[in-house]
Amino acid sequence: MNSTTQIHAKGREMARKSRSGEIAMKINEDWLSVIIAFALMLLALVGVLTPTLVTF
Amino acid sequence: MSTSTVKKAPETPASSSVGTWIGVALVIVLAFVARWAKYQVYGADLPFGIPGKVLEYPLWAALIGLIANWLLKTFGVYDPLKKGFRTELFLKVGLVMLGAGISFKVIVTAAGGAIIQGIIMVTSVYFFSWWLAGKFGLPDTLKAVMSTAVSICGVSAAIAAAGSVLAKKEEITYVTALVIVTALPLMVIAPLIAQAVNMPEAVAGAWFGGNVDTTAAVVGAGTIYGETAQKIASIVKQTQNALIGFVAFGLALYFTTVVEGKKERPSASVIWKRFPKFVLGFILASLLYTFGVIKSGDVSKTISGMKDWAFCLAFVCMGLELSVGEFKKMGWSPVIVYLIVTVFNTLLALIVSWLIFGWLFPIGTV
């Protein structure tokens, strides 16, 4: 089996595992919280989210 | 004798994912209930002159979480949903957004005092806890996890320490339960004491940040006491949290070389690996606010509202994640040690925070 075929086989295996949930992309919770917070703040900055919508 | 066994269907990724999302949806619904409860009693006059403000949303959210926790366990549906109970994630999202309302100058000023306070508190409480746990004959791994949890920041510190000393899983869940059981009442009692002695908000915030064990309860206590207290408490706690990496590295070094007698040393990369990266998000948000990218007005109000929602979700999860069953498994000696250390921690933090934030680095309203 040449290297290209090996790479393709490995790719198919990875795709299968990904679909079946055997592997999942993991983002560090700290970075995930930063991404979520900045995404929400961006929505506030461009006016998609307003005080009325999120009032506590 | 014949036995019948009921085979449980294996949990598939799809069913696990559905359970997680149902868990998240439940947390959101409970947060709405907490918000409703807050409006029902806010401003009410309570016995013994206790202001209705004490019944702020952190208390309701945690209480509603605890009730839901009991109901879910009673009806046997807790486990499929528990992945949706994400105290740490919601809390960190809220803390990053809290940064968007604090001037960087305040962070720098408060962080100066917080570093001094953090070093004094972490070293004193850590070594007192280690010594006392030794007197009660607790195993070294439990001593390490407990001492780190009580001296730095509860759950995440316990997990970091457990990784360094290869503690048992039950030791982590046990200490986690201890942290939440002591932090929940402290979250309400500490602001009451602060109010009884008319403590300035900045000092009170520094005290909550130094003595309440888990960041969620620190923010909760600060929220109950006032806006300045919430900000200072968060800065002090996050500064203390940043010390996790150094403690984790020191523990790994001690356990591999002294306890296990190995010659190889752990890598200093542990310090960065354990550093709470969301603190960088908090600082960046503060810089955006300081340089006027995030302006006062509607944008600030929106971010502040979202921050409160994120904290409320975190407090609901804190109630949902409590597991008292762990105490039966490991006995009551660690509970006694933990409670004594908590009293020591509370008194010491009171003296240190008053000296530092009332005298050395006085901060007014922010």
Description:
The complex is a heterodimer of chains A (56) and B (366). Chain A is an all-alpha fold. Chain A has helices at residues 3-20, 29-45, 51-54. Chain A is elongated and about 55 Å long. Residues 18-25 of chain A have low confidence and may be disordered. Chain B is mainly α and 366 residues long. Chain B starts with 12 loop residues before the first helix and ends in a 6-residue tail after the last helix. The model of chain B is unreliable at 1-8 (pLDDT under 50). Chain B is built from 17 helices and no strands. Chain B is globular. Chain A binds chain B through residues 20-21, 24, 28-34, 36-38, 40-41, 44-45, 49-51, 53-56, and chain B through 12-14, 16, 35, 57, 88-89, 92-97, 100, 276-278, 280-281, 285, 293-294, 298-299, 301-303, 305-306, 308-310, 312.
DSSP summary: helix tally of chain A = 3
| Mean pLDDT metric of chain B | 85
Look at the helices and sheets of chain B and give the structural class.
Answer: mainly alpha
Percent range for β-strand residues of chain A = under 5%
Cα separation of the termini of chain A: 62 Å
**DSSP summary, beta strand count of chain A:** 0
The amount of helix of chain B comes to over 70%
How many extended strands of chain B?
Answer: 0
Oligomeric grouping of the chains: heterodimer
Mean pLDDT of chain A: 74
What order do the SSEs of chain B take from the amino end to the carboxyl end, as H and E? HHHHHHHHHHHHHHHHH
Number of helices of chain B: 17
Considering the chains and any ligands shown, give keywords for the structure.
heterodimer; A: 56 residues; mainly alpha; 3 helices; B: 0% strand
Secondary-structure map with pairings?
The complex is a heterodimer of chains A (56) and B (366).
Chain A (H helix, E strand, L loop, with lengths): L2 H18 L8 H17 L5 H4 L2
Chain B lengths: L12 H29 L15 H18 L3 H4 L5 H13 L4 H32 L4 H14 L1 H11 L3 H28 L4 H11 L3 H11 L1 H15 L2 H16 L9 H5 L4 H13 L7 H24 L3 H6 L2 H28 L6
Helix pairs in contact in B: 1-2, 1-15, 2-15, 4-14, 4-15, 5-6, 5-11, 5-17, 6-7, 6-8, 7-8, 7-12, 8-10, 9-10, 9-11, 9-17, 10-11, 10-15
